Amino acid sequence: MSISRTTTPLSRRPGAVWTHGFATGRVHCLGLSNFAAWQIVEIIHLARARGWTPPTVTQFLYNTISRGVENELLPMTDAYGLGTCAYNPLAGGLLTGKHRAGQEAVPESRLAVNTGYRDRYWNDRQRGRLSGC
Question: d(Cα 127, Cα 119) in Å, to the nearest integer?
Fold first, then answer.
């Protein structure tokens, strides 16, 4: 289950996954993507209180220049025994070694053709970090 920007309370979002997915055998384990640590803990406690199978893995943005999960999320996964899966380990191509600060993105690279990666990584702050890689 991936987080969406919604005002629906967490307690109302995952119900169908558990009540239908697990019951019919179509879902065997639940993973969460892009949830904050406190939200995952809330979902774990909600699952336990309702007799549901709690999530077993979480996925998050993590690489050498995007390390925000180290303070709360990773300690929480250790405390609750959750598996972890990082995405964007090469920062959309920024950390491949083919890009240089002060230059344009390499033509046809992910940074050149994918606006999501370009918006997230191809900015002065992130490119300035290239000198340390």
Answer: 12
Residue spans of the domains in the chain: they are 1-89, 91-133
Closest alpha carbon to 61 in 94, 85, 37? 85
DSSP-assigned letters across all residues of 71-108: TTHHHHHHHHT-EEEEE-TTGGGGGGS---TTSPPPTT
Alpha helix (H) ranges present in the chain?
15-16, 37-50, 73-80, 110-113, 115-121, 124-128
Chain CA centroid to CA 104, Å:
27
pLDDT surpassing 70 at residue 8: no
pLDDT tens digits, one per residue of 93-109: 888 888 877 778 888 88
pTM score: 0.78
Of 52, 63, 46, 4, whose CA–CA distance to 29 is shortest? 52
Residue of higher predicted confidence among 18 and 86? 86
- pLDDT averaged over the chain? 84
Token duo for residue 25: 């055998």
Structure tokens at 111: 């940074």
